[in-house]
Specification:
The complex is a heterodimer. Chain A has ten helices and twelve strands. In chain A, helix 1 packs parallel to helix 2. Chain A is globular, with a radius of gyration of 17 Å. Chain A has an eight-stranded parallel barrel, surrounded by eight helices. In chain B, the strands form three sheets. Chain B has a seven-stranded mixed β-sheet with strand order 2-1-3-4-13-12-11, with helices on both faces. A four-stranded mixed β-sheet of chain B has the order 6-5-7-10, covered by helices on one side. Chain B has a two-stranded antiparallel ribbon with strand order 8-9. The longest helix of chain B has 21 residues. Chain B is built from six helices and 13 strands. Chain B is globular and about 45 Å long. In chain B, about 30% of the residues lie in helices and about 30% in strands. The chains are: A alpha/beta, B alpha/beta. Chains A and B meet through helix 3 and helix 5 of A and helix 1, strand 8, strand 9 and helix 6 of B.
């Protein structure tokens, strides 16, 4: 049986890890190389690195930074942010990333998912979805692109189902409403996606207390939980998180 | 010197990083002369089977010769799957045929890909697991698995609703379905063990 995965996330801007609230008001959270090494050593199950500037100019420096982070990371390492082409995916995988996450480019051209899956395998292709609660339809969420700045008409559940068909291996599901609030994950969203697809779902956005992680796994039925604020700023260590979950009967790799 | 066979598939860098971290100087190469002169070979791989086999191309013969000469060979993930006779991933493809068995899809009825940390039962007689306890978690990421039919191969299993082959050893040929380079401390220990196997082999020659 697979264990539930605890995944710290490094949002990277100008070579620094930052963390905001609902994608805004960014605060410095440290050096990505140091934080990556710390999480790998502390027993995190994976590491996610998101280039949140993702401009053309930042692309080259990001590859160099990914290389440096990867040198000390011996757990699965996912890199995302602004990825648009197979060539970029290839470069990142050759630089030490194990998986890539695609978001905006996949919405614009869903063929990217299929091409990447055929070339590198589905296990390499993570679809990142930034979801926002719909103002007009209750119990529905809309896909937002360009780092959450542009809402689309696409329904999150429908998009997740389609992405699985196209070859995505995992869904990194961020609730924009919950992101950085530390008020808990949006488990209604998590469960809606989890029920609709058979690939693993990673819950993201909203972790503030240990019980939030438990709730996402039990109520949201997710396979993995992503977190930033609660581990970056020293509130909890990975070990504390895992011991807590193990104590409540969740299978973890301690 | 351990050579990591570079045949243009993903994640080779991770394997290099892990070996360097444990103090083993590895060379990444696609030169057949270097591959032939290695003390041990690693066949990494993050790719679809068919793509990997065609990318390996004529190096397949070189790798097979080195393995048949008795030098240690470690296949990782798709590199492990390629040790077997064939795979049915996106059509039927031939593997290296070093270990008897076929690579087939994980049966439905569970989450696929099998992705994450799963507990592997570690048989004492398998050299890669020396110094590790009876069971350890390793990181898996795959949708196909090997049905091992080789009577000479020792096999370690993990439970994914059925006994899934996680690692094989047939004389000097080693393979792991999981990613030791991404399995934290237990994975680094496994790579260290492979490094030592290569060093012992070199001394014997």
């Amino acid at each position: 049986m697979l264990t539930k995965r605890i995944i710290p996330c490094l949002d990277v801007k100008d070579n620094r890890v930052v963390k905001g609230v609902k994608f805004l008001n960014l605060r410095d959270a440290g050096d990505p190389v140091e934080l990556g090494a710390r999480y790998s050593d502390e027993g995190a199950d994976e590491l996610v690195f998101l280039d949140i500037t993702a401009t053309i100019r930042s692309r080259e420096t990001i590859v160099e930074l990914v290389e440096k982070v990867a040198e000390n990371v011996f757990i699965p390492f996912t890199v995302g942010g602004g990825i648009q082409t197979i060539q970029q995916i290839d470069t990142l995988l050759r630089s030490g990333a194990d998986k890539v996450s695609v978001n905006t480019a996949a919405v614009q051209d869903s063929e990217l998912i299929t091409e990447a899956a055929e070339r590198f395998g589905s296990q390499c292709v993570v679809l990142a979805v930034d979801a926002r609660r719909s103002q007009t339809k209750t119990g529905r969420w809309q896909v937002c692109v360009k780092a959450g700045s542009e809402p689309t008409d696409i329904d999150v559940v429908e998009w997740a189902v389609k992405a699985e068909e196209l070859g995505a291996g995992e869904i990194l599901l961020t609730s924009m409403d919950a992101d950085g609030t530390k008020a808990g994950y949006d488990n209604e969203l998590n469960k809606a996606i989890g029920d609709a697809v058979s690939i693993p779902v990673i819950a993201s956005g909203g972790a503030g207390k240990l019980e939030h992680l438990y709730d996402a796994i039990v109520d949201g039925k997710v396979d993995a939980v992503l977190m930033a604020s609660i581990t970056h700023f020293g509130n909890y260590t990975i070990k504390q998180i895992k011991e807590y979950l193990a104590g409540r009967g969740i299978p973890v790799n301690l | 010197m351990i050579v990591i066979v570079d045949y243009n598939v993903g994640n080779v860098k991770s394997v290099c990083n892990a070996f360097r971290y444990i103090g083993c100087d590895v060379t990444l190469s696609s030169e057949s002369m270097l591959i032939e002169s290695a003390s041990g070979l690693v066949l990494p791989g993050v790719a679809a089977f068919g793509y990997a086999v065609s990318a390996l191309g004529s190096l397949a013969e070189v790798v097979r010769d080195v393995a048949n000469s008795g030098k240690p060979l470690l296949g990782i993930c798709v590199g492990y799957q390629m040790l077997f006779d064939q795979s049915s991933e996106h059509g039927l493809h031939k593997g290296l045929g070093l270990i008897s068995g076929s690579v087939v899809p994980i049966p439905p009825g569970r989450v696929i890909p099998h992705m994450g940390w799963n507990c592997v039962q570690l048989p004492k007689e398998m050299d890669l697991f020396a110094g590790l306890s009876e069971e350890k978690h390793f990181y898996f990421a795959h949708s196909f698995y090997a049905e091992v039919t080789d009577s000479q191969a020792k096999v370690a299993f993990t439970d994914y609703g059925f006994a899934l082959a996680a690692s094989v050893q047939k004389q000097n040929i080693y393979g792991v379905q999981f990613h030791p380079e991404k399995s934290s401390k237990a994975g680094l220990k496994l790579l260290e063990n492979f490094y030592q196997i290569c060093q012992r082999q070199t001394k014997k020659c």
